[in-house]
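The passage that follows is intended for readers who have already worked through the single-chain material. We present the inputs for a multi-component assembly, then the predicted structure in tokenized form, and finally a short commentary. You are encouraged to pause after the input and sketch how you expect the pieces to fit together before reading on.
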Amino acid sequence: MQSLKIRQATLADVVPLSGLIQHTIRVSNSEDYDQKSIDMLCAIFEPEPVAERIENELILLCFMGSELVGTVGLRDDFLRSMFVEPTFQRRGLGKMLVARIEEEARQKAISEMMLHSSMTARVFYEALGYEFVELQSYPEGPFVLMKKPLR
Ligand SMILES: CC(C)(COP(=O)(O)OP(=O)(O)OC[C@H]1O[C@@H](n2cnc3c(N)ncnc32)[C@H](O)[C@@H]1OP(=O)(O)O)[C@@H](O)C(=O)NCCC(=O)NCCS
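Having made your guess, compare it with the prediction:
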């Protein structure tokens, strides 16, 4: 059994983090978004914008042994950039990362967590207690605004 480790991202993680996210989008989101949307979503996670995110928000990385297998971010009261490597999905890693970022939010006195869910991830967030707020339309495609009170 390989060890599981969670730590905060630094600028040294930009390239592998960008790679993990773009690969996950291409594999896991293709059923719900067309190719143009997938390309636009991948462009958001090129190394340069990923570096900007690392500098401006809290980003956690999850490693299985030495392999980067998941990530989640927090910017103000928004949970962002939640991705688990496709071959490691449905093992509880996403749930664990959300619990960690919710704890970070509580420590910042955030009383309600917001997020924009992909169509793909909506059932996942519902399973973790997030509620539908509204469907929103972006150039990259539809996303679901969701919220959850943090107690
Ligand atoms: C959404 C995502 C982060 C979930 O990560 P994960 O590690 O697979 O999730 P978990 O294993 O912790 O799942 C927790 C629970 O959520 C629900 N769930 C997760 N994925 C699901 C799916 N595809 N279908 C139905 N329920 C699902 C289940 O209730 C699950 O518990 P169970 O496995 O005991 O039944 C991952 O699938 C992913 O990276 N998806 C593609 C990228 C994406 O859309 N990210 C969100 C951007 S907003």
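Commentary: The beta strands are 4-8, 58-64, 67-75, 78-84, 112-118, 131-138, 141-149. The mean pLDDT is 97. How closely did your sketch match?
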